[in-house]
Every structure is written in structure tokens, then in C-alpha cells.
Amino acid sequence: MIYYGTMYDHKIRFSAVKMNEVVEEARKRHSLSYLASVVLGRALVGAALVSPWLGEREVWTIFIEGDGPIRKVVAQSRSDFSVRGYVGNPKVELPLNERGKFDVSGAVGKGTLRVVRDLGLRTPFVSQVPLKSGEIAEDIAYYFLVSEQIPSAFLIGVLMGAEGVRVAGGIAVQILDRSVEEEKVLRIERNIKTLPQVTELFQESDPLEILERVFGEPVGFVETGIVRFRCDCNREKAKEAILVLDLGEIEEMKREGKGEVTCVWCNTKYEISPEELSELIDLKKNHLGL
Hints:
Layout (H helix, E strand, L loop, with lengths): L1 E6 L4 E7 L1 H11 L3 H17 L8 E8 L5 E7 L3 E6 L16 H5 L2 E8 L6 E6 L6 H11 L4 E10 L2 E12 L6 H12 L4 H7 L2 H9 L7 E3 L2 E2 L5 H9 L3 H10 L2 E4 L6 E4 L1 H15 L2
Parallel strand pairs: 5-11
Antiparallel strand pairs: 1-2, 1-10, 2-9, 3-4, 3-6, 4-5, 6-7, 8-9, 12-13
Helix pairs in contact: 1-2, 9-10
């Protein structure tokens, strides 16, 4: 469930989400190691926290590319609260860091965070910032400050258990109008600093209670939504992906008896029959004027 709204005459906006099942589904779909589950889980939570602020047709995608062993982390959200994502190395494992936690920053390394905002127009908006820490929450907050000039706080956590994802959640607070009273901003900052670990918070409290701890008062009118892992891949898109290949590659697929396309976002596999490959070969030849 995601909770979102505004405070202080819409000068501050917030969102909070608990999405254990969503991150667990991503873990299972991509057969992720524990560390990869935490890394992708954090990115998915971050994308979900932004989803209430998107336009009706907008698609918001973060690409985190670093020199660490996970190589790449991609997460995407839409205004219907659907998310999807993947990592470059789903089996990455590292020793725990000096605090005894999963070494997310070590897995990500140094690099960049790129945000693509697709509003359904001809050209999407693209912004890029250097990674602040590789911990993901701080990096997303840094992106909003630098690229959109919106002071932000993102707190995100994913806790693993022997059975899989035990806790996945986060909160986000953004100052939209800097005329908001300084006393209120300082109170929010103090409250955030005194909060326990995010995963501990989400084990003890629901998102609404956590928001009230952040603001130090009831948050008033709040809207809610259901976050889901959803991918828009399908068989026709799989065939279109094959059409991008060279003619010789498609013909080789047919000689081997079948083609297989795996969606990078959700790991769904599509088996393309020899008959379908023949149709695609004909389409490719027509396109090439052969």
C-alpha cells in the first residue's frame, strides 16, 4: 500500500509505501541473490515513492550504472503505481559491510544515476547526476535536488530473511515551496534524524504512523493506492524484438527450430515457433526489399 499527499498548503508533499510482496515477486522473477534483491528492491521502492507525482501518461525510469559488480540497476514506475525493474548481475554477492549490513554501495560502486521521464511526447526528458553514495535513497534525493531543484529526503530499506523479502518500504518528503515555515522544516529534519532504521520502522509501524512521526503531527487528508509489479511485455512485442535482428540471425533461429525472447524487465520467456519465424523472415525481406 502507498500513502501520499501534501502538507502546509501544498508546500510539502510526501509519500510512504510498504511493498514486501512486490519486491519478493521481483526477487523470484529474476532469481536474485540476497544482495541483488536488496539493491533492486531499494530502486523499486524509490520508483514507487515517485509514482503519485507522475502525470497520467508519464513513465519514470531510473538507470543506475556503476563500476561495482552489479553493473546496472533499472527501475520504472507509472502513475497507476505499477513498477518493474532488473539488475545487470542478478547473482551478485559480497561480504557484509562494516555495519553488518548488505553492501549495497559496494555492489553499485561509483557511477551515474540517469532519470528518463517519458511524458508520451516525441522525446523524453533525460537528466543525469553522479552517484552520491550508491545507497540509492540518497542518490535519488540528490537527483531531485540537482536536476529539479527540489529539496528531498528519501528513506528506503529492504530486509531479507531466510524465506525471502521480509520488509521493503520507504518514505519520501519534498519541499515544493521554500516559503514553508523554517520551524516546520527543521522539525521534520530533526524527526527524520531520530528515526530508527527504515526496516525496523516498517516492522513496527504502518506507513501512515511513520509519516506522523516524520511530521510530528497528524498528516490529515491522505490518498492511497496499491503498488504492483507489472510488465507490459507480450508475444507481439517479443516478435518485434526478433525483427530488429539481422535477417541471417532470424534464419539461423528457424534452422535451429525455434526462437526464444526473454523480457529483460520481468524475465518472462516467449517461445517463437518455426512457423512464426517464417512469417518474420518474410516481413524482414519485404522491409529490406528482397
